[in-house]
Amino acid sequence: MRFSLKSEYALRAALDLALQASPSGVARTSDVARRTGAPAKFLEAVIGQLRRAGIVESERGARGGHRLALPPSRIRAGDVVRAVEGPDALSIRPGRQRPPPGAAGASTRALHHLWTGTERALAASLDGVSLEDLVRRVQEASGVPDFSI
Amino acid sequence: MRFSLKSEYALRAALDLALQASPSGVARTSDVARRTGAPAKFLEAVIGQLRRAGIVESERGARGGHRLALPPSRIRAGDVVRAVEGPDALSIRPGRQRPPPGAAGASTRALHHLWTGTERALAASLDGVSLEDLVRRVQEASGVPDFSI
DNA sequence: AGTATTCATATCACCTTACTAGGGATTGAA
DNA sequence: TTCAATCCCTAGTAAGGTGATATGAATACT
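Predict the joint structure of the above. Result:
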């Protein structure tokens, strides 16, 4: 029941872009890969998914690279995970398909309720943390003083 | 990110045993399979895991079968899931292994914290529902009046 | 003895994961 | 123009998980 490593790489990459935030600077795939420990070619695909999800934007050509397309406060961890794991990344309910429409006995419905509640808890946890929250946590852990009021 | 069908089958089977609870009666695999819609031979293995986890006890030979080893109030949905999916069924953190010991940068630690919180939310949801809760829900849904005070 | 049933393994086809490799096309700076 | 980089596509692989099915042994009721 684990998320795949793509989620971890995607979050590390997004966090890396948030931390390197020279206002309009971009970071190369290879640099992000080095800093995050992700295989470069693999990360290329991951960042591609983030771009198609509107989380990252890229500039091509020499001196190109990637940057966040949104302020970190508007990117939730859940968004990043959904971007790389697909639309039902947070569906944990067993069985790949829709339940047979009428076929729901009382037990089936009781379990359906259980899974639904659990999915909500999962989503709430992942959507309750923004990239900004993660940045703040990293900076606190790094002993960087916070001068904001 | 789904749980496997074994979790669904296991929960249905456990719920079925709780509902059929003639005090010391046992239910055959084939009957549980018919009522839950699980493939009989596959269910046999699933129930085996529940037995080894101490959730179910079985009697062999003719007229043998299965029953719950504990009162439904003491069996949590999370216990059933862990029994069939393995000890780290509720670990969602990407990457199969322990993180490389010293290698934790501040970002890694921030993400570690995120995953830990999410795992806790997952476990809380699944451990917050007992078989007794599910039985009650099924009986309410079936329009069975509740005569308890 | 005969039969019903659990219990334990082994096997299977299929899919997903986490890569690695290679290349071609496009874009933009120097 | 040349080079650096993103972008996009294909393909392959080793390992493991999923959802079963098959076979047979152990056990216990009749």
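Chain B touches chain A through 46 residues (CB under 8 Å).
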